Amino acid sequence: MTQHQYSLEEIRLRLNELDDQLLSIISERRALSIEVAKSKVETSKPVRDAKREQELLVKLINNGKEKYQLDATYITKLFHTIIEDSVLLQQSYLQDLANPQQSRKPLARVAFLGAKGSYSHLASREYFSRKNTELIELNCSHFKEVASTVESGHADFGVLPIENTSSGSINEVYDLLQHTTLYIVGELTLPIEHCLLAPQEMRLEDIKTLYSHPQPHQQCSEFLSRLNGVTLESCASTADAMQKVKDMKQTDVAAIGNSSSGKLYGLQIIKENIANQTENHTRFIVVARKPVEVSTQIPAKTTVIMSTSQETGSLVQTLLVLQRYGINMTKLESRPIMGNPWEEMFYVDLKAHLESQEMQQAIVELTKITRHLKVLGCYPIENIKPTQVKLES
């Protein structure tokens, strides 16, 4: 029998040492990323340099393969995470310079839908953790309460889900934006991992009642259609559903929610991955009473709402304006105007900085040909696309 050179305990100690070294190196690298951001303030260079990122990743892949026998896919995944973190750090630094009053506030009051453990709560924590901001969490029972809590000044920010890759647009939030005085100041895309949760182990055929928010019911419709004789009950949020199931302590009820949130309520996972799509993501917007200043060195998105005349081709005219100025539209959503039958308000997400010359000219032209136009906000794009390199097969 071959004798091991080191004991298991010695191996674990060495792994711990290496892990500490990795943490130290990552910390030093993050500090250097801030120094890069400081240099870009002086040169006015954009945060991302796609060509340099590609060259860096190719070099790392080649070195990893030749010197250390590391798999290219492994290196790519690792440095995608590191590059994303570096980009977000630099963007945050530049945003703090552009918004000095906000950067001095290490504490923020944030309103969101549901209790702790709801997806809106998870999104709130994820978004503000990137800002190194501690939260005073204000849970609300419906979307309108989130908006009114911010409008009244009782919260600094509100977090609202606006669209999902499976169930589509969340119309209630779009309708709310039509009447609010708030501005969009940020966004976040959160992976949604729906699970079936219950107080104890149970068979699927034993479930009689299933609690959740209407959105997860839609997003898991294919799985739910295979459950016989189950009554679907709607709750204000997934957190409320989990709390209800916990309090009921019955052997025939379950909830749909996130697995980590289920642990907060003492619930067990009965079935994982029950969403219609494996890639299930929800986009959340962050709203505030005042707009945010966005550094011109940061990729930005601008959201506007507008209504057009009832004449043929009026909407096409507005789209031609955007085409003429080379502005990429990433979202177009129409919603009825309350009190005006058959008239619609259009919500448009544009991949452009509000202060850019192209966007300013487009706003002037759009104002002339629309019945109503309002900028809901200009905010940083924080969904960082991975650097693309071609891996050898």
TrEMBL record:
Keywords in alphabetical order? Amino-acid biosynthesis, Aromatic amino acid biosynthesis, Cytoplasm, Isomerase, Lyase, Multifunctional enzyme, Phenylalanine biosynthesis
Q: Which reaction does it catalyse?
A: chorismate = prephenate; prephenate + H(+) = 3-phenylpyruvate + CO2 + H2O
Kindly give the Gene3D superfamilies that the UniProt entry links to this protein.
3.30.70.260, Chorismate mutase, Periplasmic binding protein-like II
Q: Out of the domains of life, which is the source?
A: Bacteria
Pfam families given in the database record: CM_2, PDT
- Its Gene Ontology molecular function terms? chorismate mutase activity; prephenate dehydratase activity
Q: In which pathway does it act?
A: Amino-acid biosynthesis; L-phenylalanine biosynthesis; phenylpyruvate from prephenate: step 1/1; Metabolic intermediate biosynthesis; prephenate biosynthesis; prephenate from chorismate: step 1/1
Q: What is the designated name of this protein?
A: Bifunctional chorismate mutase/prephenate dehydratase
Which species?
Vibrio rumoiensis 1S-45
